[in-house]
Amino acid sequence: MFATRNSLKLAARSFSTATPQQSKVAVLGAAGGIGQPLSLLLKANARVTKLSLYDIHNTPGVAADVGHVNTLSEVTGYSAKDQDGLKKALEGAELVVIPAGVPRKPGMTRDDLFNTNAGIVRDLAQACAEVCPKAKLLIISNPVNSTVPIASEVFKKAGVYDAKKIFGVTSLDLVRASRFIGDKMGKIVDVPVVGGHAGITIIPLFSQVKGLTLSNEERDALTHRVQFGGDEVVQAKDGLGSATLSMAYAGARFADSLLRANSGEDVLEWAFIRSDLFEKEGLEYFSTYVKLDKDGVKEILPLPESISAYERELVQKAIPELKKSETKGASFVA
Ligand SMILES: NC(=O)C1=CN([C@@H]2O[C@H](COP(=O)(O)OP(=O)(O)OC[C@H]3O[C@@H](n4cnc5c(N)ncnc54)[C@H](O)[C@@H]3O)[C@@H](O)[C@H]2O)C=CC1
Ligand SMILES: O=C([O-])CC(=O)C(=O)O
């Protein structure tokens, strides 16, 4: 991966190596299973000029360790023990990535994490709304289908809400879909994934992959594998948590897209955001194709006309699930 100092290539895409403008990125939950490798990948990204790590404990060690990686960014670490540690971590942040919270154990759904993680995300979002209201929030903590509405409601209450800047990170679903199809195609291609980030709300759009032909059985099996890819890792880790390394990779890739957009590049991404696409159905949040610019979401693109009848049906099935989760999140703050 660290082939040369100037080329950090990861799969089909690469992280930025261009000389950056000033970009401070804060990671909240930085000492955790995702937080540590994610912080490492952000340290390796030349677009990050300041990396600010926060966790309730163990952050000084992670910051000291990551801080020895020889890129020019400055690394600071704060924990809950430091006076105003969270505030200091957030001051001047352009991007705030949030992987704070508990992960699943076998037999749990992501929604089972709500009771613990909803409060964590609410409180961290509250601090962001106070200290860096213009920062882009990248929410990894599960259940994403509820934690994004939670953060949004906190920002609304604080009077600083900008729907263009609050993102649920669903990029692990895209990474998985791309990887699983990679075996079939013998090369890595991008696979769109829309909807949300839990079970049947995760909808891979295999119909959009040029040159891919699947039998109905293959399509069903691959769709199921993408939808329940998280469970595969939870079971394999056998009580020790959920995906961390692949999530760090996917999260760092998503952060890089926002940093690229911030420096003027036209960037296309898939993200779970506030969207009017299903307004008629009363749904507020949906992961879809977006154009990014320095202010966050520049344009939300509709679902491709050419998606299959099978995929349309999956979208219809996901809508009530997504609605339940967003209502649960929004009511928690209300
Ligand atoms: N969006 C996605 O695709 C994915 C989301 N996740 C979710 O990410 C979250 C974190 O997962 P892991 O890193 O494996 O868990 P972990 O338990 O290894 O790490 C979580 C970290 O959050 C910290 N933390 C807890 N409360 C905090 C607070 N109030 N402020 C700051 N830090 C706090 C903990 O001290 C810990 O270091 C889980 O909710 C998990 O379900 C995991 C994989 C994929
Ligand atoms: O499955 C989990 O709980 C973690 C997660 O969101 C994923 O791996 O997609």
UniProtKB/TrEMBL annotation:
<dbReference type="InterPro" id="IPR036291">
    <property type="entry name" value="NAD(P)-bd_dom_sf"/>
</dbReference>
<keyword id="KW-0816">Tricarboxylic acid cycle</keyword>
<feature type="binding site">
    <location>
        <position position="55"/>
    </location>
    <ligand>
        <name>NAD(+)</name>
    </ligand>
</feature>
<dbReference type="GO" id="GO:0006099">
    <property type="term" value="P:tricarboxylic acid cycle"/>
</dbReference>
<feature type="binding site">
    <location>
        <position position="110"/>
    </location>
    <ligand>
        <name>substrate</name>
    </ligand>
</feature>
<dbReference type="Pfam" id="PF02866">
    <property type="entry name" value="Ldh_1_C"/>
</dbReference>
<feature type="binding site">
    <location>
        <begin position="29"/>
        <end position="35"/>
    </location>
    <ligand>
        <name>NAD(+)</name>
    </ligand>
</feature>
<dbReference type="InterPro" id="IPR001236">
    <property type="entry name" value="Lactate/malate_DH_N"/>
</dbReference>
<keyword id="KW-0560">Oxidoreductase</keyword>
<dbReference type="GO" id="GO:0030060">
    <property type="term" value="F:L-malate dehydrogenase (NAD+) activity"/>
</dbReference>
<comment type="subunit">
    <text>Homodimer.</text>
</comment>
<feature type="binding site">
    <location>
        <position position="247"/>
    </location>
    <ligand>
        <name>NAD(+)</name>
    </ligand>
</feature>
<dbReference type="GO" id="GO:0019752">
    <property type="term" value="P:carboxylic acid metabolic process"/>
</dbReference>
<dbReference type="Pfam" id="PF00056">
    <property type="entry name" value="Ldh_1_N"/>
</dbReference>
<feature type="binding site">
    <location>
        <position position="142"/>
    </location>
    <ligand>
        <name>substrate</name>
    </ligand>
</feature>
<dbReference type="GO" id="GO:0005737">
    <property type="term" value="C:cytoplasm"/>
</dbReference>
<comment type="similarity">
    <text>Belongs to the LDH/MDH superfamily. MDH type 1 family.</text>
</comment>
<dbReference type="InterPro" id="IPR001557">
    <property type="entry name" value="L-lactate/malate_DH"/>
</dbReference>
<feature type="domain" description="Lactate/malate dehydrogenase N-terminal">
    <location>
        <begin position="24"/>
        <end position="168"/>
    </location>
</feature>
<feature type="binding site">
    <location>
        <begin position="140"/>
        <end position="142"/>
    </location>
    <ligand>
        <name>NAD(+)</name>
    </ligand>
</feature>
<feature type="binding site">
    <location>
        <position position="176"/>
    </location>
    <ligand>
        <name>substrate</name>
    </ligand>
</feature>
<protein>
    <recommendedName>
        <fullName>malate dehydrogenase</fullName>
        <ecNumber>1.1.1.37</ecNumber>
    </recommendedName>
</protein>
<feature type="active site" description="Proton acceptor">
    <location>
        <position position="197"/>
    </location>
</feature>
<keyword id="KW-0520">NAD</keyword>
<dbReference type="InterPro" id="IPR022383">
    <property type="entry name" value="Lactate/malate_DH_C"/>
</dbReference>
<feature type="binding site">
    <location>
        <position position="117"/>
    </location>
    <ligand>
        <name>NAD(+)</name>
    </ligand>
</feature>
<feature type="binding site">
    <location>
        <position position="104"/>
    </location>
    <ligand>
        <name>substrate</name>
    </ligand>
</feature>
<dbReference type="InterPro" id="IPR015955">
    <property type="entry name" value="Lactate_DH/Glyco_Ohase_4_C"/>
</dbReference>
<dbReference type="InterPro" id="IPR010097">
    <property type="entry name" value="Malate_DH_type1"/>
</dbReference>
<feature type="domain" description="Lactate/malate dehydrogenase C-terminal">
    <location>
        <begin position="170"/>
        <end position="332"/>
    </location>
</feature>
